[in-house]
Amino acid sequence: MNALLFLSFLSSMSLGIPIAIAMCIGSLMYIWFSGTIPPLTLVHRMVGGVDSFPLLAVPFFILAGNLMNSAGVTNRIFHFALSLVGWLKGGLGHVNILASVIFSGMSGAAIADAGGLGTIEIKAMKDNGYPTKFAVGVTAASATIGPIIPPSLPMVIYGVQANVSIGQLFTGGFIPGLVMTLLMMGMVTYFSYSQHYGRDAALNWLKMGKAFLELVILLVAAYFLFHLWQDEELGGMWKFGAPFLGLMAIDKFLRLEAFMALMTPVILIGGMASGLFTPTEAAVAAVAWSLFLGLVWYRSLTWKMLIKISMETIETTATVLFIVASASIFAWVLTTTQVTSQIAQWVLSISDNPLVFLLMANVFLLFVGCFMETIAAITILVPVFMPILGSLGIDPVHFGLVMVLNLMIGLLTPPIGMVLYIMAKISNQTFEETVQAVLPWFIPLIGALLIITYVPEIVLWLPTMLYR
Question: The whole model's pTM is what?
């Protein structure tokens, strides 16, 4: 019966059937021929798979990312990053990475980063004389930072499946995201000197000083907001109204480039860390702030655009949640048939050394990422890995970051890598040329993966400090 389950699933995928439907077919075949489980169980388990409060964050984070892309926030982020690092050799490469880091705190999805910022970044780099190959490679690689720095859609799915604090997963992504950023910027520096790339902007002390001023004001605002939101005695006006009126006055008076947009991750992370709202409620806050920026502050959104964005969000959400529902029934069948426990016993029979297991898990997840969509992989594989993590004493928060990063690298690997297809489309390159452009960038990505895997303190230090 187990052979029937996997044969049905793999046969359906080989025929080009979407992975979500292939999982349903495999599960239904098992249920039908087992004769011991009512077929309606398929429907009940699929509904149960998406009947989760934390999963409400998914449509709201998707909507927030779409709003930010359509409201012109990506342009402001790009120009802000240009003021900070555009004067370095290979400046637009560094700008590309820094802009992705900033946008990571708003969207939580690599595809949103690649499709939104990528269009601006690749055009700017090509206009400034950079080879298309270099522009595509750095843009694709930097997009993988999106789900590592919070908020993160894959971490929400992992947290639901593993029954792990999503807040801890979110905070655990900050330092790994910084490690990835530094390694990628090191790669840009190497290319800049070896290929003799120039500087894309003169060192303008006034612009750079203004950008640093925005960062200083942002840090000060984050500090005061965090302490205000922790004070239970203050009323709503002092907690929300007065601080935000002050921020708006500062932005208008100093005419800052992207200050209000940069407040998005401050509001999300500050609100969660202070206990003001849960990660699910943070997604709603992100949408409210995005609407405020687009409709009121920058006035770059129209009601017609809003309807279009809403329809795109509904379509994306339906796709994601259908994958989650399909993967839930598939994972339930695996658990019911005790496949997960058999796999755990087999893995532990090879080695009970956590370091060896992490190496095996990395190799396996990199392989899975080549063929399986991220959300489906998380939903199916988490029940398989959890018994092993418990036996070996591996922290599930640490493993969550390792798993998500592996699957983000999978977005850059053929034949399924979605970011590759997006890059090929917006750069007018063939798929093969896009793959060749991305290949050198596996060096910093795999380097970051190894560091995060074997130095768990990089992931666990900040959650321990904030959630002890």
Answer: 0.82
